[in-house]
Amino acid sequence: MALDLFNSVKLGTIQLANRIVMAPLTRNRAGEGGVPQEINAKYYAQRASAGLIISEATPISAMAHGYPALPGIYTEAQIAGWKKVTDAVHAQDGKIVMQLWHVGRISHPSLLPNNALPIAPSALKPAGQAFTYQGLVDFVTPRALEIGELPGIVADYVHATKNALAAGFDGVEVHAANGYLLDQFLRDGSNKRTDQYGGTFENRARLLLEVVQAVAAVAGADKVGVRLSPVNPFNDMKDSRPQALFNFVAEALNPFNLAYLHVVEGGIHGAGIAAPFDFDDLRGRFKGAYIANLAYDKARGNAAIASGHADAVAYGVPFIANPDLVARFKVDAPLNQADSASFYGGGEKGYTDYPFLQVK
Ligand code: 8OZ
Predict the structure, then answer these.
(1) Which of 43, 44, 67, 180 is catalytic?
(2) Is 357 within a domain?
(3) Ligand 1 centre from 227 Cα, in Å?
(4) C-beta 85 within 6 A of ligand 1
(5) For 184-199, what is each residue's pLDDT tens digit?
(6) pTM above 0.85, yes or no
(7) Which domain holds residue 274?
(8) What is the 3-state secondary structure (H, E, C) of the chain?
(9) In the predicted structure, residue 28 carries a pLDDT above the cut 60
(10) Is 296 among the catalytic positions?
(11) Ligand 1 pocket test: which of 26, 56, 173, 180 has the largest number of ligand atoms within 8 Å of its C-beta?
């Protein structure tokens, strides 16, 4: 029998009851000071039958913020808030890792301490607008990080990792996708640096690899995953040679023996892909476990596992609308449709009020 979504699997040392992963989902419902609340614990606990939950992207420092009402992981109160979430998920025998996030240039002074300029590899203003507490506002030209500031960024990832472990997470995922800081360093549309952090693939991957090294030293590499999005144009991203760049990155991650590599296999928010890309080629270069993501349904998820393309499949929007997605897949029940108007911000509506299957 071929493997499918319902077989258990071990990603590093994280044991999953099934291969249906809840993708990281920004929901903008944290409390004051970026502190998770009971409502957030309820939302995650409702989804604990996923083989693994990846938390919503979580800022590692005050400068890492780029949207309203995000939960952070850099204060004691935030750790205590997240502890409620991990306790609630573990009480249902679920597993949950935290996605560590720095938005880089995808921010706005109004979201940052002392109205600071967003930071980036290079002082290039992304096309588009920031989501602020005042609504959509044009992005500003970010400040290019000085080389001497990069150890401080790595230290913020380490601090956040220690906090995530203290909050009871089963591991951490380094968010290096979707046009945020680490992805801004990887791709040459956003990285024009002329120092050791720009130019060659090795240089553009240097900050990511330093972060992974430092985070793995704290958490254990078998509790660390990395997320990439090679051809996602979201957040004004592009690269001149994505296949060669991301093949390089996948191979450069091999020596760490990470828990998994998680790949967004296209463009999010309905964006097309920035360039043709062979995800089987990328997958073949990475020696560890692989989580595939983006627009998979049950049949394509099973096929990806049966063929060996993926070890697990991450579902995003389906998990917003179906807290019991695993049970629904199991019996081929119809899925609730997601209400996109309640994705970002608000309260219980469109968050914790999606119906479960009725047990007959
Ligand atoms: C949607 C809206 C805001 C943020 C990502 C963290 O794309 C996000 C995100 C997605 O990774």
Answers:
(1) 180
(2) no
(3) 13
(4) no
(5) 999 999 999 999 999 9
(6) yes
(7) 9-342
(8) CCCCCCCCEEECCEEECCCEEECCCCCCCCEHHHECCHHHHHHHHHCCCCCEEEEEEEECCHHHCCCCCCCCCCCHHHHHHHHHHHHHHHHCCCCEEEEEECCCCCCCHHHCHHHCCCEECCCCCCCCEEEECCEEEECCCCEECCHHHHHHHHHHHHHHHHHHHHCCCCCEEEECCCCCHHHHHHCCCCCCCCCCCCCCHHHHHHHHHHHHHHHHHHHCHHHEEEEECCCCCCCCCCCCCHHHHHHHHHHHHHHHCCCEEEEECCCCCCCCCCCCCCHHHHHHHCCCCEEEECCCCHHHHHHHHHCCCCCEEEECHHHHHCCCHHHHHHHCCCCCCCCHHHCCCCCCCCCCCCCCCCCC
(9) yes
(10) no
(11) 26
Task: Examine residue 256 and state whether it is found in any structural domain, yes or no.
Answer: yes
| Residue 360: predicted pLDDT | 56
pLDDT at 1 over 90: no
Segment 282-306, tens digit of pLDDT: 999 999 999 999 999 999 999 999 9
pLDDT tens, position by position, 328-343 = 999 999 999 999 999 9
For the ranges 82-91, 220-229, 267-276, 302-311, the lowest mean pLDDT is seen at 267-276
In a domain, 78, yes or no: yes
12, with CB counted inside 10 A (0-12, 13-18, 19+), is: buried
* CATH number of the domain where residue 212 is located: 3.20.20.70
Ligand 1 center to residue 324 CA distance, Å? 23
Contact status, residue 96 vs residue 50, Cβ threshold 8 Å:
no
Q: What is the percent of the chain where pLDDT is above 70?
A: 99
27 Cα–ligand 1 center, Å? 9
How many domains is the chain built from?
Answer: 1
With pLDDT > 90 as the criterion, what percentage of the chain qualifies? 96
- Whether residue 52 lies inside any domain: the answer is yes
Q: Whose CA is nearest to atom 9 of ligand 1?
A: 26
Alpha-carbon span 134 to 345, nearest angstrom:
14
299 alpha carbon to ligand 1 midpoint, in Å? 26
